[in-house]
């Protein structure tokens, strides 16, 4: 039973600012801080490798002292809109109706809402009343790949079914107005908001890259490296500076055995669909892949144009591969790779 990716679509929130446009807001926020520290923060934003960030809130709202309740209310309202837009686009791309979806997986970690966003989509789009729901939370940046893995396993066991995986995130909603730590500042510099949807199918007559294999890899004793702490002011980012180093250390164990069990090596991979966690992580992985004669140009382009949108970002990279010219050729292999809290690395092997 083969499972294929038959459509992908992205949806951006209404507000965006270039780095140059954000600097004046930063200067106001930093007023009262030591001048040397202010220069360091501005330089960090300028060198983050992100030219534009999108947001569900305009910059004035982001830098205003709003409560967790206020920001989470905006998160709830706007992520429903984003998810509906991305799912509708993906259905149109696949020439499907909302009732053609049998399994819906929604992924988010940057806000809290119960019921989850999938419940709203079922009502708004008139989806089947017996549709299977799976909301995925608390997995951070890796969850876009996680959702696809869960969808693939469901479809593999259920022929002639379809699944929609929707990753919708607003890291902007987690910005801590009174926190001048480097973790809060770095996350603000590299993250942006966005949404993506991919449709997977176990219908034999539907076209798209096939998910050949998938796997998860969990780092021991690394819970402290990435995640959120729940504070009265909202979700406070946890991001250890050792993340790039840990990825480099484990990289051979993450990639090589996974490919070898499919009788492949990195030389056989034509397309690297890698989640851009941030400039340092991208540089680390680029050095590792570069030594193998590969590039991650699409990953760098997504980071530059949108920033890290947490779980949705790797789907933006995948979309670039499906739309690029020349398009992937029949028989090409692609490797999807994301990292997230736990600490975990998750992989999908694709074949066009």
Total number of β-strand segments?
Answer: 13
The sequence of SSEs as H and E is EEHHEHHEHEHEHEEEEHEHHHEE
Radius of gyration equals 20 Å
Low-confidence stretches: none
Distance between the termini: 16 Å
Largest sheet: 5 strands, mixed
Fraction of residues in helix: 25-40%
Q: What's the average pLDDT? A: 95
Overall number of structural domains? 2
- Report the total helices: 11
Spatial order of the strands in the main sheet?
Answer: 1-7-6-4-5
What is the CATH topology assignment of the largest domain? Peroxisomal Thiolase, Chain A, domain 1
**How does CATH name the architecture of the largest domain?**
3-Layer(aba) Sandwich
What would you call the shape? globular
Computed structural class: alpha/beta
CATH superfamily heading of the largest domain: Thiolase/Chalcone synthase
CATH C-level name of the largest domain = Alpha Beta
Strand content: 15-25%
Question: Can you walk me through this structure?
Answer:
By secondary structure, the protein is an alpha/beta fold. The chain folds into two domains: 4-201, Peroxisomal Thiolase, Chain A, domain 1; 210-351, 3-Layer(aba) Sandwich (Peroxisomal Thiolase, Chain A, domain 1), CATH 3.40.47. It contains eleven helices and 13 strands. The protein has helices at residues 19-30, 35-46, 59-62, 68-94, 117-125, 143-156, 182-190, 243-260, 279-290, 297-306, 313-323; strands at 4-11, 15-18, 52-55, 103-107, 132-136, 162-169, 194-201, 210-218, 226-231, 234-239, 271-274, 333-340, 344-351. The strands form four sheets. Strands 1-7-6-4-5 form a five-stranded mixed β-sheet, sandwiched between helices. A four-stranded mixed β-sheet has the order 8-13-12-11, with helices on both faces. Strands 2-3 form a two-stranded antiparallel ribbon. The chain starts with a strand and ends with a strand.
């Amino acid at each position: 039973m083969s499972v294929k990716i038959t459509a992908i679509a992205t949806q951006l929130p209404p507000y965006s600012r270039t780095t140059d446009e954000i600097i004046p807001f930063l200067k106001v926020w930093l007023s009262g801080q030591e001048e040397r520290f202010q220069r360091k923060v501005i330089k960090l934003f300028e060198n983050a490798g992100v030219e534009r960030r999108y947001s569900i809130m305009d910059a004035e709202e982001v830098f205003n002292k709003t409560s967790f309740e206020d920001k989470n209310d905006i998160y709830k309202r706007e992520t429903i809109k984003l998810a509906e837009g991305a799912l509708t686009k993906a259905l149109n791309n696949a020439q499907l109706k909302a009732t053609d979806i049998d399994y819906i997986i929604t992924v988010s970690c940057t806000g809290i809402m119960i019921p989850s966003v999938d419940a709203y989509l079922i009502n708004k789009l008139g989806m089947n009343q017996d549709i299977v729901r799976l909301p995925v939370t608390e997995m951070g940046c890796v969850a876009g790949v996680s959702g696809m893995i869960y969808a693939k396993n469901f479809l593999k066991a259920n022929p002639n079914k379809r699944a929609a995986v929707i990753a919708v995130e607003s890291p902007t909603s987690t910005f801590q107005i009174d926190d001048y730590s480097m973790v809060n500042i770095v996350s603000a510099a590299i993250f942006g908001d966005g949404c993506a949807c991919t449709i997977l199918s176990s219908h034999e007559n539907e076209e798209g890259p096939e998910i050949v294999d998938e796997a998860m890899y969990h780092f021991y004793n690394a819970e402290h490296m990435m995640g959120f702490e729940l504070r009265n002011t909202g979700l406070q980012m946890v991001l250890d500076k050792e993340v790039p180093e840990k990825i480099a250390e484990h990289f051979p164990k993450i990639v090589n055995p996974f490919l070898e069990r499919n009788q492949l090596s990195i030389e056989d991979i034509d397309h690297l669909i890698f989640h851009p966690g941030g400039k340092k992580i991208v540089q680390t992985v680029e050095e590792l892949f570069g030594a193998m004669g590969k590039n991650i140009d699409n990953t760098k382009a997504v980071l530059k144009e949108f920033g890290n949108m947490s779980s949705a970002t790797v789907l933006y990279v995948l979309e670039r591969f499906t739309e690029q010219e020349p398009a992937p050729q029949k028989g090409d292999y692609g490797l999807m790779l994301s990292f997230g809290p736990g600490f975990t690395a998750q992989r999908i092997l694709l074949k066009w």
